[in-house]
Amino acid sequence: MPAPHDIAAETELWNAYAESAFEEDAEPVFHWTQYAGHGPGAELLGDPASALEIGCGTGRAVAYLALRGVEARGLDLSPVMVEKTGERWAGTGARFRQGEVLAHLAHHEDIYDAVYSIFGAAWFASPGRLFPLVRARLNAGGHFVFSQPPAIPGAYGPQGMYKGGFAGPAMFTYRYSFRPAVWERLLLGAGFTTASATVLDAPIRGNIGTLLVRARA
Predict the structure, then answer these.
(1) Which UniProt keywords apply (predicted)?
(2) Angle 180-189/127-136 helices, nearest 10 degrees?
(3) Over the range 85-121, which residues count as b (16 or more CB within 10 Å of their CB) and which as e?
(4) Angle (CA) 42 24 11, round 5°
(5) What average pLDDT score do residues 107-129 get?
(6) Which residues fall within 8 angstroms of residue 47, CB to CB, at 6 or more apart?
(7) CB 217 within 8 A of CB 141
(8) Is the predicted pLDDT of residue 17 greater than 80, yes or no?
(9) How far are the Cα atoms of 10, 39, 141, 163, 164 from residue 151, in angstroms, in the given order?
(10) Terminal CA-CA length for the chain
(11) Of the candidates 102, 7, 120, 107, which has an alpha carbon nearest to the alpha carbon of residue 59?
């Protein structure tokens, strides 16, 4: 069952994140895991002519693709982040839009060769609603790839997450966690032809791994 998201409250949360996370001197980079230089890169998207990152955050991955000739777009809920990314990456050809992912995918008719999320909107949107919308925005043979932390054993489905501790304004969002086999089943049920979900081990033994999910339209 989808969690009752409060989009205004979540926008405030991600605006606060934008103020703390954006680094003016950051360089374009593309990696799926939370560990620099670890794991696969943009090759998992195939060889797309166009790509959309949902929940693009600081826009570094979007800029990376744009500099390599991809028609790269980024979508983020935070208007603060979109303003910052638009200014920072203006010279790369990357373009950014502000919007809530489910509404954006439902009301825009743009079609892409790849849609992806790196610890982004695929973690924070109900897969039952998100996955069919992503499938509808992909060309035949297109790739949908996302990464996020793996589920904590026994903690599955939508889970609330506060930002900034347990005192002060109640800024929160919901994230979604499932076992790999469940992610695969949800994607196939949404109309994808193939789906695979795996957990990549961290580069340091015992550290948190990365859930990496791939699907083909």
Answers:
(1) Methyltransferase, Transferase
(2) 50
(3) bbebbeebbbbbebbbbbebbeeeeeebbbbbbbbbb
(4) 80
(5) 96
(6) none
(7) yes
(8) no
(9) 22, 19, 28, 19, 21
(10) 25
(11) 120
- Angle at Cα 12 formed by Cα 11 and Cα 13, nearest 5°? 90
* pLDDT for 129 beyond 60: yes
Q: Residue 214 corresponds to which amino acid?
A: R
Over the stretch 165-196, which tens digit does the pLDDT of each residue have?
A: 677 777 778 899 999 999 999 999 999 999 99
Pairing of strands 138-148, 210-216: antiparallel
Q: Any idea what the Cα angle at residue 178 is, between residues 126 and 214, rounded to 5°?
A: 80
- Reported as a pLDDT band with limits 50, 70 and 90, residue 35 is very high
Residue 14 has pLDDT above 80, yes or no: no
* Distance in angstroms (rounded) separating the CA atoms of residues 58 and 87: 11
Compute CA distances 193 → 39, 76, 143, whole Å.
25, 27, 10
CB 134 within 8 A of CB 117: no
Task: Determine the pLDDT at residue 172.
Answer: 77
Predicted TM-score (pTM) of this structure: 0.91
**Ranges of H-type helices in the chain:** 7-21, 60-66, 79-88, 101-107, 121-124, 127-136, 180-189
